[in-house]
Every structure is written in C-alpha cells, then in structure tokens.
Amino acid sequence: MSAFKTLYRGYGHLLRGFGLISAVATFLMMVLVVANIIGRYLFNKPVTGTLEFTESLLVLIIFCSVALTQYDGGHIRVNLITRRLPPPVARALTIIAMLCGCAFFTWCSYAAWNFAAQAYSFNEQEWGEIVFPLWPMKFVVFFGIALLAFQFLLDAIAETMMPIAADDERAMERI
C-alpha cells in the first residue's frame, strides 16, 4: 500500500471520528429539544439554556462533518461540462477545482482562526437564559474548515494519482 493511500485512509478514519461526534451531537440535540418540549408543555418548566446549547450543538454537527462529506463525495458535484470534455482536460479541471477549494478554505480557516482567537481574547459570551461562552464553538468552526481544506488538498493529489470519474461515488479504493 502506498504511503499516500495510507495517509488518505488514515485521514478518512480521523474524519469518521469527527462524524461520530457530529452524530452524537445530533442525538443530544434531539434529546434536549424533546426534553424542552415535554418540560414546557407537561410541567410548565422548560429546560434552561436549550437555545444556547442547541446553537452550539448545531455548530458541532455542521463543522465536524463537512470534511467527512467531502471525503465521501457527498457534496454536490456538477459535471455538466466535464463529462463532455476529453478525460485529460476533465481531469485537469478537476485538479484545478480541488486546488481552488483548498486555497479558498485555507483562507477561510485563517479568517476563522483570527475570529476565534479574538473571541477567546475577550471571553466572548452569549447572554440569554444562561451565560454561555461562544469562543469554543468558533474554534470548532476553524477546525472544521481546516479539515475541509486539507481534504481538498488530498483530493487534488488523489486525482493526480488516479482519476476519479465524475459519476463515481468516492472510489478512493482505486488509488
């Protein structure tokens, strides 16, 4: 097995771990919302801080799974033009698109890092039913975007090694 294939699969296992975190956060959010509804309508006592917790859980759900979705090929991929081009041209455009995605999300992660560091520096909090710190979730946003940027880089490298047909699911076993 090549070193790149080992890296790619290992990174996929890491992303599956973050996907599990996302799934657990989804389950916790469902339990919290149901408990809030039951508490509000049956006992006239809603769960304090439900809004703040569900907002944070939503950040975990989205940003812990966005790179996994790219790894699995789950993002929308429009191949209207590339499937009509000669395979070498389509492959080159796919590599360029992956590198553009890597560059864009690297820039986004840099901006998210600055945003999160600033929020941490003054201990940004949300004042609602409870006082809730916001800066930890801003670091989750940074981390999720950074994982996605790295996934785009790995996809570009994978495409140079073995093209992935635009209509394939995510056939990385062929690398």
SSE map:
Elements lengths: L2 H40 L7 H14 L2 H6 L15 H35 L3 E3 L3 E3 L1 H27 L14
Antiparallel strand pairs: 1-2
Helix pairs in contact: 1-2, 1-5, 2-5, 4-5
Keywords:
single chain, 175 residues, mainly alpha, two-stranded antiparallel ribbon, 2 strands, 70% helix
What would you note in describing this structure?
α1 (3-42) packs antiparallel against α2, α1 (3-42) packs antiparallel against α5 and α4 runs antiparallel to α5. The protein has five helices and two strands, in the order ααααββα. Helix content is 70%, strand content 3%. It has one domain. It is mainly alpha-helical. It is elongated, with a radius of gyration of 20 Å. It has helices spanning 3-42, 50-63, 66-71, 87-121, 135-161, and strands spanning 125-127, 131-133. Residues 169-175 have low confidence and may be disordered. A two-stranded antiparallel sheet has the order 1-2.
Short description:
The chain has 175 residues and is mainly α.
